[in-house]
Amino acid sequence: MMRLRHLFNNLALAEMLVKNWEYDESSLDLFQHFRISANAIYPFKRNGEICLLRCCPTSEKTRESIVAELEFIGYLHSRHYPALEPLPSKTGDEVVQKSTPWGDYYASVFKRVKGKQISQLNFDDEIITAYGAALGRLHSLSGEYTDPKTRRWTHEDVFHWVEETLRDLPVGRLPLDELRLLRDYFSGLPISPATYGLIHYDFETDNVFYDDATKSCSVIDFDDAMYHWYTMDIVQALDSLKDEVAADEFAHKKAVFIEGYRSEYAIEDDQLAAMPAFRRFANLYGYTRVVRAMQECWENEPEWLVELRAKLTESLAADSECFGKPIEGTS
Question: Residue 315 sits in a domain of what CATH number?
Fold first, then answer.
């Protein structure tokens, strides 16, 4: 999540940035359907097809992380994996860096993938099986992605970033206690090519699109990808699924998802048994990102920002509830 000052809609900025690509001028009214969180996303059309402008301040990301993301997406396309497709700018660049009246920004453009977000569908078993299989196939391909030109960060880099960030924030002792617990736990987990690689990290139901014509899924938003145990992606996907289905249906849907996953990639039961610790990793990382984003305050904030602060405060309380407690499965 970006700092709150970057969450304000800025149509003038979007128009400046999109001019680096070919676009249908009559389609810029689609900008009103923007969304902003870790990036600002503005839809528009190019030759009548929906495309998405993605941009963020250079203070929020590194060019290297974006280049590494696009390199991995290119690799996935070379292996016929249905991921979103970046479009080159007028100068042939997939990442454009521009100075604007609002600061320096990175921008990229992607084609819209086929199908509908799984979060908008009915979660029948056929869809959940395809959802799991798409993640299994992704991990299978990740295991073969052994010599990237530009590397993403690792779970250890995330721990370092969390430590550096929390030290400068008024959060008290518990988040750092949680960091020490998790560092100790994950330092004891074996790393092997079969269990550890470049993961999506945000393989949630709104980032996966199901195409009924092909009975398959396409995947977007590799922005948070990192090197981690594959179990981390499974935890994130199942937590997202749990939020979408009835409580009495979740156990069955979880089993269907895992079956779909195992149709493409093996996962041992002991790896699944470790899911509570991976959930704690996600909680701490998410907590740190939100705390960092919320540090700035202004007088007379708009109502949407007041409401957002309230929701974010609730999420901080939920994420931190486990901080400092023993990790399930450890003594």
Answer: 3.90.1200.10
